[in-house]
Amino acid sequence: MKILVLLLILTPLIHITQKNTFSTTHANLSFDYYKKNLTDVVKSEIDSIWDIMKNGSEAEFHLLSKEEKKKLQNNHIYKLTSMRSDSVIAYLHRKRIAPEYTNLKMEYFDDSPALKCASSNASYKSMVKRKGVVSVVAEKDTYSRKYFHQSESSLLSSTCNEFTIYPDTEQIIYGNQGTVVRFPANCFSTQGLNDVNEIEVSLCEYYTIEDILLSGITTASADRIIETGGTIYIEARFKKKILHLKTDHPIEIFFPSETDELKNGMKPFEGKSKDGLIDWDFQINGDVKKIKEGTQLFREEQDVEESSDWEGEEWSEEGYYSEADGYLMKVGKMGFINCDRFYDFPVNTELIVSVDSDVKMSYRLVFEDIKSVLAGYEYSPNGEMKFPNLPKGKKATIIAYSISKKTKQAKFAYAPVKLGKDKKVYLISKSMSVSDLQKQLSALF
Q1: pLDDT category, 114, cuts 50, 70, 90?
Q2: Is residue 145 part of a domain?
Q3: What is the pLDDT of residues 15-38, one digit of tens each?
């Protein structure tokens, strides 16, 4: 880092800012007064700006309020904006925005006509002799975060079922893959609607790697890998109008587990569409408990302890019982819901993948011993795809696939990799029918 700072002082890393071909969006971030940390409000502001930016444009994030400009001395302004810029840059990188597309800009305090402002991709530290107000510039490059998620593949998913329920009484629905959902009486917000006697519910289940891949789902929360214990999509409608839950009427969901041992640390995650994929946000107010086979579900009088080590006990009272080990969750929202836990690791690496195809393909990395599927994103003009922030030493399979809705044909390629040892992978694709693609995925996973 010291070398970078010395270069910042001594070489053309500092250059006079000049008008470029990018359109620039200016945004004032709402930091708490004289605080450096990113609040949820600041993160939301960054996300909102980034989402509306077009490829080939840039945003300059200003880090100082009008009040701070008036009250703070120049030295404090420099230190404050420097620390805030580090926080913003780190957050942008966690959003998988490559470092080469983020820059720091400094508008000097002095009025020297020779150089009024400068920019660099190095960090401004105390060794910089001239000081000023630091801002962050992020470029949304033409090749930034192109995932090519192939929405046509979702047509192959046959994991969805339709139900009719009655909103004024407790209702229980069962999915084909073992999911159980309990709707409390009067849990839907039906304000402004008349005669809501029946509600249509869609339940889609994604438990196998094949279902996850063919439905276009991935398992990541921003830059963090999450290990899934089951994913569902649930939607309620009245006369084609999508309904939401009342704030104080959560639903309960049982996720069956395929593993021999239930995992600790499972949490509820909510899926949100972002950059063509589903990004998973941890639901702070959610609750997940481990359930043994034969245990009564949805018990009102006694909670199921997460640390419980019950074997299948026989209960005399009536009720609903789990037919497998699994996880019981309470959530206050519908849509994409995931039962996951964060997978953290000490050493990370990255992988570059390319394929010999003239069509856009979806790229996925599937771990051998972690139930997690990651998406790669295009980061170079020649179409290479990058998988960043991977656990070094883990075994995985890289796949690339494309499905044509018109011809019902697919292209597919795959290769086993050991992360950290394999730095670049070149895939050779084959054309095949959609049914053959499904057979290939079933055989692999």
Answers
A1: very low
A2: no
A3: 323 334 457 899 999 999 989 888
CA distance 160 to 144: 33
Phi, psi for 119 (deg, rounded to 5)? -140, 155
Three-state DSSP class for residue 130:
coil
Parent domain of 33: 2-140
**Residue 6 and residue 108 share a domain:** yes
User: Do 337 and 359 sit in the same domain of this protein?
Assistant: no
**Kind and range of the H or E run holding 37:** none
Domain end (from 113, 140, 167):
140
pTM: 0.64
Sheet containing 362-367: give its strands across: 373-375, 362-367, 395-403, 409-418, 430-433
Average pLDDT for 328-332: 93
For the chain, the domain total comes to: 3
Q: Are 117 and 106 in contact (CB under 8 A)?
A: yes
Do 43 and 132 fall within a single domain?
Answer: yes
Angle, alpha carbons 296-298-304 (nearest 5°): 65
Same domain, 173 and 233: yes
Can you spell out the DSSP letters for 368-415? Answer: SSS--EEE-EE-STT--EEEEEEETT-EEEEEEEEE-TTT-EEEEEEE
Token digits of residue 243: 């309904």
Residue 60 identity = E
